[in-house]
Design a protein that fits this description.
557 residues, alpha/beta, 8-stranded mixed β-barrel, 5-stranded antiparallel β-sheet
Length: 557
């Protein structure tokens, strides 16, 4: 498979190699000769003829079996041979992707020129390939995409598509396992995608956990989607990274080339990215096909960052409150505060779209503190109403960076004011807790000392060791909605929930289920001993006014 594109396929590199008077033979990772430059063809026609139709190893050995003049140390990589009475120097150099460069230099030019040219060829290769995976980078991918567009113009029957693929929750994996294993996972994902592609397809990594693919021959959108489904399915088999078994999913966007749209390569990549972002909004492991309306709803990362920096001062942040229902009394027992960004005509933006940006630009601390202050103030107001409202609990999510702030406890105590600390529950993901476990234990003990409760959010989806669970002073496990969704049809999900509730009972912890949507799910959760639940069966996240109305209604579900 030639997804790791040859150096010579890039026009500027081909021109550079054809412009030198040293013969160059390029070899692909599978050991075949893929390119010979003009100097080899003109100055060494015998070697050019020898290189045609043979494997690289056969070509190299044919050189070695000729009359040798300079063999010795390192002779496998640099030696002299006599051809038609003239002495030449042959040099072989390995490339990062497993391919090779052989240079053929006349003796009078051999003063370091062969080694210099090999070094230049290697530099050119590195400039066009991702340094971590060895796959094509953005410039080389764009070059392939231009050629695909040109080929389609010459033959309207050809169809191709661009796929942009992103590993779901990779930031959490990277923070939990460390960057070394994160890089190992990226390499393993790239190789698994590579194994699913045809010979003429191109796989590129633009950076981070994002891959872009050119599917060179498709027969319509249904065919393309089937190919992408196969790619995503290949990633569901767990990855073994040393002593860890890692489960992942990925989201993908599809942009099918249309001759009528007169599209540039950059347009196709952008459209595939936009479709991928839409897939992220659905569920992990989703696929979306690009639609023109996506261009009108998505903002650029730069615009997003600029607007986000001004969002607090413009009073654009909002908190919605999702009810949490006690499964023992079937009544309202609390709310989870959920952040939304009110962008006016653009509507409300989910935190999944802007919290990662806030973390990257260092705004997450300020944003998180605003959430604590606002949510606690609102809960104090509701508690002042007396009655059942005075017993309501408040759940607030903390990001991993917030949790590691040295002044976190001071921020929390300031936000609480007169609110009983026992009514506040901080929701923290497994990965955040497992980042520097010793410091985590100290922080949790400080929170416990101040009578503040802690919940592990999205339990069952992270990568922490259960051996730590009994040592952490926590109060609640929240079962991720991905297990709740299919629990009535998928026995495996049901058994996972049963195991979590049993574990919690043995550790004397509460269990909350999120994403409850049907009476059947509710009945099974009650039978398993789950303490509380939230989800659209009860109510979606509510505005402050709607939440207040729900409190006053004093409903029983």
């Amino acid at each position: 498979m030639t997804v790791k594109a040859d150096v010579s396929e890039h026009e500027s590199v081909r021109a550079a190699l054809n412009g030198v008077d040293v013969g160059v033979v390029q070899i692909t990772p599978d050991g075949t000769i893929c390119f010979t430059n003009s100097a080899l063809q003109e100055n060494f026609p015998e070697l050019q003829a020898l290189a045609e139709g043979v494997t690289a190893e056969s070509f190299w050995e044919s050189l070695r079996t000729r009359e040798s003049t300079q063999q010795g140390e390192g002779a496998d990589h640099l030696f002299g041979v006599v051809i038609d009475g003239a002495v030449i120097t042959a040099n072989r150099r390995s490339l990062e992707d497993g391919g090779q460069i052989i240079t053929i230099t006349p003796a009078q030019q051999a003063d370091g020129q062969a080694e210099f040219l090999a070094s230049q060829a290697e530099l050119l290769f590195n400039a066009l390939h991702d340094h971590l995976t060895g796959f094509a980078n953005r410039p080389l991918f764009l070059d392939h995409l231009r050629k695909a567009i040109d080929a389609q113009a010459a033959d309207a029957g050809k169809q191709f598509a661009v796929i942009h693929l992103d590993i779901d929750r990779f930031r959490m994996i990277n923070e939990s396992l460390g960057h070394v294993k994160g890089d190992d996972l990226i390499n393993a994902v790239g190789q698994r995608l590579n194994d699913c592609l045809d010979q003429n397809d191109v796989l590129a990594r633009f950076g981070g956990d994002e891959f872009t693919l050119l599917l060179s021959h498709t027969t319509g959108i249904d065919n393309t989607r089937a190919l992408v489904d196969r790619l995503l399915a290949s990633l569901t088999t767990p990855f073994n990274l040393q002593d860890r078994e890692i489960f992942i999913s990925a989201s993908a966007g599809i942009a099918q080339f249309s001759e009528a749209s007169n599209m540039r390569p950059e347009d196709l990549i952008r459209d595939a990215e936009l479709a991928m972002y839409e897939a992220k909004k659905s569920n992990n492991g989703s696929v979306q096909v690009f639609d023109l309306k996506m261009r009108r709803t998505r903002v650029s990362p730069l615009d997003l960052e600029t607007d986000l920096r001004r969002a607090l001062e413009r009073d654009q942040m909002r908190l919605h409150y999702q009810p949490i229902i006690s499964l023992e009394t079937r009544r309202l027992c609390g709310f989870e505060a959920l952040l939304r960004w009110d962008r006016g005509e653009r509507g409300l933006m989910s935190p999944i779209d802007f919290v990662p940006v806030a973390e990257e630009i260092g705004l997450i601390g300020e944003l998180g503190n605003w959430v604590l202050l606002t949510a606690c103030a609102q809960m104090r107001e509701w508690h002042s109403q007396q009655g059942s409202a005075s017993e309501l609990e408040l759940s607030v999510n903390l990001s991993s960076r917030q949790f590691n702030q040295a002044d976190l406890v001071d921020q929390i105590m300031t936000a609480l004011g007169s609110l009983d600390p026992a009514k506040l529950k901080l929701e923290i993901t497994e990965s955040a807790l497992m980042d520097r476990a010793d410091r985590t234990t100290a922080m949790l003990k400080t929170l416990k000392y101040n009578n503040i409760r802690v919940c592990i959010d999205d339990f069952g989806t992270g990568y922490s060791s259960l051996s730590y669970l009994h040592t952490f002073p926590i109060d609640t496990l929240k079962i991720d909605k991905s297990f709740i969704k299919d629990m009535t049809r998928n026995r495996q999900d049901l058994e996972i929930i049963r195991t979590i509730t049993l574990l919690a009972r043995n550790l004397r912890l509460d269990v909350t289920a999120e994403g409850v949507e049907t009476p059947e799910q509710l009945s099974q959760l009650q039978a398993l001993g789950c303490h509380s639940a939230q989800g659209f069966m009860f109510a979606p996240p509510l505005t402050v006014d709607d939440a207040a109305a729900l409190i006053n209604a004093d409903l029983e579900w």
